[in-house]
Amino acid sequence: MGELLSMLRFNAGSGHIWLNEHRMMLLHTRALAELRRELLDSLGVSRARGLLVRMGFASGKRDGELALGEMRAGMPYEKAFMLGPQLHSIEGAVRVEKVHMELDLKAKHFVGEFLWTNS
């Protein structure tokens, strides 16, 4: 996780937070909870859920792009996979602990068990 943490930069003078070359924001979770409640009240459960899922997908896609950019030639696939959960921790979303993981890209096989704490 140290390599990923070294990419995090705060520039209070310009008002920017960067994770590698991706601009980030520090946001109160209570404010996000209020936004979620407003979306549910104004759009209804189905439309609000769809919007939040698309937002989560977009965020995950950006994390994936960042993780792919950090992959080194010859990096074990399991270590590369774990870049995503490490990003979740750095971003303050959740602490992920691997319990068990089987990953075989040639056989297209993946089984994983993870503990998500403080999500």
In words, what does this structure look like?
This protein is α+β, with helices and mostly antiparallel strands and 119 residues long. It has one domain. Helices cover 49% and strands 25% of the residues. The chain contains 5 helices and 5 strands. It has a 3-stranded antiparallel sheet, with no helix packed on it. A two-stranded antiparallel sheet has the order 4-5. The mean pLDDT is 91.
Outline the biggest β-sheet: 3 strands, antiparallel
Please indicate the percent range of residues in DSSP E strands (runs of 2 or more). 25-35%
Oligomeric state: single chain
The helix fraction, in percent, is 40-55%
Give the tags.
25% strand; 5 strands; 119 residues; single chain; three-stranded antiparallel sheet
Question: Which helices and strands, and how do they pair?
Answer:
Blueprint: H1 2-5, E1 8-11, E2 16-19, E3 22-24, H2 29-43, H3 45-70, H4 77-81, H5 83-90, E4 95-104, E5 109-117
Antiparallel strand pairs: 1-2, 2-3, 4-5
Helix pairs in contact: 2-3, 3-5
Write a concise synopsis of the structure shown.
The protein has one domain. The chain has five helices and five strands.
